[in-house]
């Protein structure tokens, strides 16, 4: 959305010197801050924010279709999500066992509630209001990042022009935003995402790959979570593949 103000090939691009969360604030962070409303007003319009909140918790004005707002939701294969969650929390709690995180997810006892409810909220809205809710799968983003960059641009109303395509703008964005490049930048290796919780910025970047769950779960664990997810999602049409 800011590609015209900050060309991807420019040496001064914000993502080359700032952590992504410094560029795009958390929606929930704005609402818990005493100066949250002032910070919100200070953001250039159209505003871009991110959140981990389930759809039901998003303020109506910021929900899909509310006030012209749009939401792009990124969903990950549940087994890989568990692995990613474990690695992230281990940065704060090195003693945390994988089995404990796996069990919590299977039981639905995690922040913001069961992961299947989280996914279903956004999935259902994406089928009802595709113009304001875009449901994306992490694995598909990895397989074809360029086409998904184009889809995102169309979704936010800023499709790439023929001149931009000819100039390689899509390729430049994919290269800039690749996890391999971002994880090696100084802004993402030092400092903290949240100074209060002491979450290191490096915790946000690991492999950036799919199917790593096979290196962490037993076949019994994988089957157990697959069965839970299939049971919870069976009536929705939302499925996951390896």
Automatic annotation (TrEMBL):
MF annotations from Gene Ontology: sulfotransferase activity
Phylogenetic lineage: Eukaryota, Viridiplantae, Streptophyta, Embryophyta, Tracheophyta
Keywords: Transferase
Domain Sulfotransferase: 14-237
InterPro entries in UniProt: P-loop_NTPase, Sulfotransferase_dom
Name of protein: Sulfotransferase
Similarity-based family: Belongs to the sulfotransferase 1 family.
Pfam families attached to this UniProt entry: Sulfotransfer_1 (PF00685)
Enzyme Commission number(s) of this protein: 2.8.2.-
């Amino acid at each position: 959305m800011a590609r015209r103000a900050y060309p991807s090939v420019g040496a001064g691009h914000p993502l080359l010197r700032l952590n992504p969360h410094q560029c795009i604030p958390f929606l929930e962070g704005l609402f818990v801050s005493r100066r949250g409303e002032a910070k919100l007003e200070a953001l250039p319009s159209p505003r871009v924010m991110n959140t981990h909140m389930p759809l039901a918790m998003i303020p109506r004005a910021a929900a899909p279709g509310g006030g012209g707002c749009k939401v792009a939701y990124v969903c990950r294969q549940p087994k890989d999500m568990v692995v990613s969650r474990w690695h992230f929390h281990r940065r704060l709690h090195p003693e945390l066992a994988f089995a404990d995180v796996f069990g919590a997810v299977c039981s639905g006892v995690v922040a913001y509630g069961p992961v299947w409810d989280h996914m279903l909220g956004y999935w259902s809205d994406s089928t009802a209001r595709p113009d304001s809710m875009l449901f994306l799968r992490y694995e598909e983003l990895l397989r074809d990042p360029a086409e998904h960059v184009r889809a995102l641009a169309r979704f936010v109303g800023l499709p790439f022009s023929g001149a931009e395509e000819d100039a390689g703008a899509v390729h430049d964005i994919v290269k800039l935003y690749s996890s391999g490049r971002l994880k090696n930048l100084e802004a993402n290796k030092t400092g903290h995402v949240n100074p209060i919780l002491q979450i290191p910025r490096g915790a946000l970047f690991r492999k950036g790959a799919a199917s790593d769950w096979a290196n962490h779960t037993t076949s019994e664990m994988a089957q157990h979570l697959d069965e839970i997810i299939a049971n919870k999602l069976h009536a929705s049409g939302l499925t996951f593949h390896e």
